[in-house]
Specification:
This protein is α+β, with helices and mostly antiparallel strands and about 900 residues long. Among the domains are: about 1-110 and about 145-195, tricorn interacting facor f3 domain (Immunoglobulin-like), CATH 2.60.40.1730; about 315-445, Neutral Protease, domain 2, CATH 1.10.390.10; about 750-884, Alpha Horseshoe (Zincin-like fold). Helices cover about 40% and strands about 20% of the residues. A hairpin with a 4-residue loop joins strand 14 and strand 15. About 50% of the residues are buried. The protein binds zinc ion. Zinc ion binds next to helix 3. Its cofactor is Zn(2+). Belongs to the peptidase M1 family. Pfam families: DUF3458 (PF11940), DUF3458_C (PF17432), Peptidase_M1 (PF01433), Peptidase_M1_N (PF17900). Aminopeptidase N is involved in the degradation of intracellular peptides generated by protein breakdown during normal growth as well as in response to nutrient starvation.
Length: about 900
């Protein structure tokens, strides 16, 4: 392997910056290929020992330095040193002014980090280290400054000029150019800087905070798209009042602007007072957006808004603390969505997402702690572990101390750290102080990688009417980490009798007797004894998924069937149904692998029948029950698997189920009225989800009747959700019906990029036909472009994660599809290529023949000298874990 040195940044090397950036004034003379950025900085040496002798070091990458002056005197080349990553002035006074003038080329910026152009407009993305592509500055989150920004550009092409904070002045030149000055009163780190210039449609609204501040809200979108911004506006206002009501946090500027752009590396960005969004997470109407889109928009609008406190007012000392803002903010947006919609359904969806993305990450070559101790490229650490596992740790904390104590801890954290760059210790200190709970061992959740396993073995003693439960936990070794100890686990439990009624037991030797138990586990093992069990209890473990662990139990099939039917906790009901399904699917895979006809246990169809019978009560929940574990989930349960065997097993089991349940499915499907007026709310979305789940299962019959039903659903669809559900059904058949629907879809939505992403995605994920040929056809479709991250993901990520049997095809053709795409994207956008690269992580779980093929394909990429550091970091870690 051609090893390029991968320079690690280490948490233990943290040093405070020796200077204070008291004031930052920037002037942007915007021109697409040559923008001039003039920066005037007031800098003071800190009165600390480390600062006494220090020279000034500023970050700066790909900047053409035009001039540099210190206290009004032009510096000569010998007075400073320029290198690949920045500028050093060895000797500076204790207090001085520094002025630099640089030129940058936004039109050539395909990495979409720093100042770049999207659809002819200027925009920025500075987190994590984009600001150094704009001007010389100490580009690290613990250095904060007051920013004053002046933007100049031609008025005709760029009528809107935005930056953080409040607009304080505007003006015109006589050559057709105009300018605007923005001032942000809140000191901030450079990663929260933003600038936008262009021609937009906008919608306006306002919000009055509980202390009476009038906030003007503007959402800026593509010309002609204003009508699709109203849902985001509504979600924003609901977020603003939710954060006041629940966390007591208010907005702190007179203006809040959101801009939607088509080309964006992530979902959205919380720049102070000027959030920038991927338009996929902002624009929605019934004709073009699905319920999942609406849900994601609501969550991400809330997420970015909530960052105003968890991230901006209190920011991170260094990027090792990233989860301090991201984990907490994900937790906050999850809670918001739970309050806006169904708490039970939201929890199940979050657990599904955690298991689909974070669990595999945590058990594979890319496993890392929620607070890593080193990294090569920080962009690669915007991971599911930092975000979703980080949020689960916050939830564990809340469960341990209780909701009210938790909220007072959060309050203390915000108040004590307001205006500061904080650490995870600061967060835990506030929680401990406010709650009086020592939270023993909680740090290990942040420092130990790997998903803990919780084993729960119950034993019933009929004579003594006694139930004993032995709990034991362990966390597996992960790359570079072994010898782990227990983490604090709140284990929520309840007991049910043979008739499904809740049982009240009492903890042996005490008077404590309850329906619901929250057992705080703070050791490797714990023995529990419950008395008063006249009948054999069935134990419901980990209610509400009270901790992010893998659970192993000695529950019998009968226990699972009982819980699936009777548990009062919706999560455990769903989980028990899933457990029955997992067992059936893995059993079928085993049988097929041995050339035998699989048997589908009656428990499974009975559980689904129960779900259908009860569907009207909570359609969204029933829809979740009806969805069987997918191939990727099964791959996690079966080491060294053959994904096509798992896919065959899934097809087989679903085929049997639909035979048994066809009438029930038909009846449930028939309750749906496609002509009903559209509302994006959770209740209406639940009905659509149920219809889709029924249709999905009906299509597993592979009968012409089902194909016709999917086709009719497609033509009757009055909204994008139903249209996609129908296309999904048709994709199970492939052939002319699917193709005709796709063609109609394309001609109707050809000029809507977000809808065309769906057209790419559904085909990339289709298991019918020849998925490798489909991939090639989509890649050469005129609508495909490497320059738009959404489009690249709609093909590459959808294929690799949504079509596992094709991606992991035995001859390696799927691996080559993705590797070619990564190779082509990498030169344009290394961060995007690296993210696609993470899809190869699943190769560690397939049988050795496939692993070898994947390893060879990765080696070819790694042999390229020009491969970006981002992609190299990801692929080399994955490859090191493969057999090859
Ligand atoms: Zn975030």
């Amino acid at each position: 392997m051609r090893t390029q040195e991968q320079i690690q940044v280490r948490l233990q090397d943290y040093q405070p910056y020796p200077f204070v950036m008291s004031h930052t004034s920037l002037v942007f003379d915007l021109q697409p290929t040559r923008t001039i950025v003039t920066s005037r900085l007031l800098i003071e040496r800190k009165p600390i020992v480390e600062a006494r002798q220090a020279g000034l070091r500023l970050d700066g990458v790909d900047l053409e330095l035009i001039s540099i002056e210190l206290d009004g005197v032009t510096l000569k080349p010998g007075d400073y040193q320029l290198d690949e990553t920045g500028l050093t002035i060895a000797s500076v006074p204790d207090s001085f002014k520094l002025e630099t003038k640089v030129a940058i080329n936004p039109a050539a910026n395909t990495a979409l980090s720093g100042l770049y152009m999207s659809a002819g407009r200027f925009c920025t993305q500075c987190e994590a280290e984009g600001f150094r592509h704009i001007t010389f500055w100490p580009d690290r989150p613990d250095v904060m400054s007051r920013f004053h920004v002046r933007i100049e550009a031609p008025r005709a092409t760029f009528p809107t000029l935005l930056s953080n904070g409040n607009q304080v002045a505007i003006g015109e030149y006589d050559d057709g150019r105009h300018w605007a000055a923005w001032d942000d009163p809140h000191p901030k780190p450079s990663y929260l800087f933003a600038l936008v210039a262009g021609d937009f449609d906008r919608i306006d609204d306002h919000f009055v905070t509980r202390s009476g501040r009038q906030v003007e809200i503007g959402i800026f979108v593509d010309k002609g798209a204003a009508s699709r911004a109203h849902y985001a506006m509504d979600a924003l206002k609901r977020s603003m009042s939710w954060d006041e009501q629940v966390f007591g946090r208010e907005y702190d500027l007179d203006v809040f602007n959101i801009v939607a752009v088509a080309d964006f590396n992530f979902g959205a960005m919380e720049n102070k007072g000027l959030n920038i969004f991927n338009s996929a997470l902002l624009l929605a109407d019934e004709e073009t957006a699905t319920d999942a889109d609406y849900e994601a928009i609501e969550a991400v609008v809330a997420h970015e808004y909530f960052h105003n406190w968890s991230g901006n007012r209190v920011t991170c000392r260094d990027w090792f603390q990233l989860s301090l803002k991201e984990g907490l903010t994900v937790f906050r947006d999850q809670e918001f969505s739970a309050d806006q919609r169904s708490r039970a359904v939201k929890r199940i969806k979050d657990v599904k997402a955690l298991r689909a993305r974070q669990f595999p990450e945590d058990s594979g070559p890319l496993a890392h702690p929620v607070r890593p101790s080193s990294y090569v490229k920080i962009d690669n650490f915007y991971s599911s572990t930092i975000y979703e596992k980080g949020a689960e740790i916050i939830r564990v904390l809340q469960t341990m101390v209780g909701r009210d104590a938790f909220l007072s801890g959060a309050d203390l954290y915000f108040d004590d750290n307001d205006g500061r760059a904080a650490t995870i210790e600061d967060w835990l200190a506030a929680m401990r102080t406010a709650t009086g709970n020592p939270l023993h061992g909680i740090e290990r959740w942040y420092d130990q990688a790997g998903t803990p396993t919780l084993e729960a073995i119950s034993q019933y003693d009929e004579v003594r009417q006694r139930l004993t439960i032995s709990l034991s936990q362990s966390t597996p070794d992960t790359p570079g980490q072994s010898g782990k100890t227990w983490v604090p686990l709140p284990v929520a439990m309840a007991f049910f009798g043979p008739d499904g009624a809740p049982l009240r037991l009492n903890l042996a030797g005490t008077e404590v007797r309850a329906d619901d138990w929250l057992i705080p586990m703070a050791s490797d093992r714990l023995e529990l004894t419950f008395d008063g069990a006249a009948e054999k209890p069935t134990v419901s473990y980990l209610r509400g998924f009270s901790a992010p662990v893998r659970l192993i139990t000695n529950q019998t099939d009968a226990d699972l069937a009982l819980l699936a039917a009777c548990d009062t906790d919706p999560f455990v009901r769903w989980e028990s149904t899933q457990a029955i399904a997992r067992k059936a699917l893995l059993g079928a895979a085993e049988a097929l692998a041995h050339g035998q006809e699989p048997e589908v246990p009656a428990d499974l169809s009975r559980a689904l029948q129960g779900a259908l019978a009860d569907a009207a009560r909570d359609p969204a929940f029933a829809a979740l029950l009806l969805r069987l574990p997918d191939v990727s989930e099964l791959m996690q349960l079966k080491p060294l698997s053959d994904p096509s065997n798992l896919q065959a097993a899934r097809l087989f089991v679903r085929g049997v189920l639909v035979e048994q349940l066809e009438q029930n499915l038909d009846a449930c499907f028939a309750t749906y009225d496609p002509a009903q007026a559209f509302s994006p709310n959770a209740e209406a979305a639940g009905k659509r989800a149920l219809m889709a789940a029924c249709l999905d299962l009906l299509c597993a019959s592979q009968t012409d009747r089902a194909a016709l039903r999917a086709e009719n659903t497609f033509f009757a669809a009055r909204n994008m959700t139903d249209m996609m559900s129908a296309l999904d059904g048709l994709s199970q058949f492939g052939g002319l019906r699917f193709q005709t629907a796709l063609d109609g879809f394309k001609s109707r939505f050809a000029d809507n990029a977000l809808v065309m992403d769906k057209w790419f995605r559904i085909q990339a994920m289709a298991i019918s036909g020849d998925p490798i040929a489909t991939f090639a056809r989509l890649r050469s479709d005129p609508a495909f472009t490497l320059l738009n991250p959404n489009r690249v993901r709609a093909l590459g990520a959808a294929f690799a994660s949504g079509n596992p049997a094709a991606f992991h095809r035995a001859d390696g053709a799927g691996y080559r599809c993705l590797a070619d795409l990564i190779g082509d994207v990498d030169g344009l956008n290394g961060a995007l290529a690296a993210r696609l690269g993470t899809m190869f992580e699943s190769c560690a779980r397939v049988e050795l023949g496939r692993q070898k093929l994947a390893s060879a394909v990765l080696q070819e990429l790694l042999n390229r000298n020009s491969l970006s550091a981002n992609t190299r970091e990801i692929l080399s870690k994955i490859q090191a874990g493969l057999m090859g």
